[in-house]
Design a protein that fits this description.
By secondary structure, the chain is an alpha/beta fold. The protein has one domain: Alpha/Beta hydrolase fold, catalytic domain (Rossmann fold). 35% of the residues lie in helices and 15% in strands. The protein contains eight helices and nine strands. The chain starts with 28 loop residues before the first strand and ends with a helix.
Length: 268
């Protein structure tokens, strides 16, 4: 593990730092296409590998695709401990602006943390053509935040990992084995603030929700669906846990997300 005392943050040149030793499959991924584009955002403690199949499905359908690696992810858990919601949102916003500068229309799709970032992007940028939110953490309970704050106050820097919540026993997510307490506290606090912005989302929304999710309660999806101003489509993922993009419903997610993107952009 790297020594926090010998790291500067944020790293020069963006994330991942040049020459970083990345987790296998974690690297940012992109594909040319168009005229419409899709931004694909991964989950907390995970990396691009959990969304690679979805990104490739969009690319195969003719969309330009960007799947960035969010700050602190894909390297070591100590790097993630240096990060907050502001870092992740800044990276997502930069990636969105890069796509929007070239594309006629942009779709944003995210899982977990990526879905929360997707929701805020849509609230801030009503020109987004549509969003796909998979198991979005957008309405954390006060008890959840208090529990994490209590752990942090006790001096514990890390808690057990939340990755690889997958029903398929043959699939393992390449997520960190530990969760930085301060970073997850930042995510929960930001999600709590995000709940007041949900009503600003006016673009079409596709929500996909796992019936059994051991990380984010399915009721967060219900809150999102009820609070947005735009049209909502919902799909229940009956066979998958939290990391549904790698689970039994992977194919369903890819097919439905692509079909949604085609509808809202008018792409045949």
């Amino acid at each position: 593990m790297s020594d926090p005392a010998h790291r500067s943050w944020p790293p020069a040149g963006g994330w991942p730092p040049p020459g970083a030793d990345l987790v296998d499959g974690a690297e940012p991924w992109a594909a040319e296409g168009g005229p419409h584009s899709v931004l694909v955002l991964h989950g907390f403690t995970s990396n691009v590998g959990s969304m690679r199949g979805l990104a490739e499905a969009f690319a195969a359908a003719g969309f330009a695709v960007s799947a960035p690696l969010l700050p602190g992810h894909g390297t070591t858990v100590e790097d993630l401990a240096e990060c907050t919601w502001d870092d992740w949102y800044a990276a997502a916003l930069e990636a969105y602006r890069d796509l929007a500068g070239e594309a006629d229309k942009v779709i944003v799709a995210g899982l977990s943390l990526g879905a929360a970032l997707t929701a805020l992007l849509a609230a801030d940028h009503p020109e987004i053509a549509g969003i796909v939110c998979i198991n979005p953490p957008v309405a954390p309970s006060p008890e959840m935040l208090e529990a994490v704050q209590a752990i942090e106050a006790s001096g514990e820097a890390y808690m057990p990992g939340i990755g690889s919540d997958i029903a398929d026993p043959d699939i393992v997510e390449s997520a960190y084995e530990l969760t930085p307490v301060a970073a997850v506290g930042s995510l929960i606090a930001a999600a709590d603030g995000l709940s007041s912005r949900i009503g600003d989302i006016s673009c079409p929304l596709l929500i996909m929700t796992s019936a059994q999710d051991h990380v984010v309660p399915p009721t967060d999806s219900d809150f999102l669906a009820a609070a947005v101003a735009g049209p909502v489509e919902r799909i229940n993922l009956e066979r998958s846990y939290h990391v549904a993009t790698l689970d039994y419903d992977k194919g369903l997610i890819e097919a439905e997300a692509v079909a949604f993107a085609r509808r809202v952009t008018g792409q045949p």
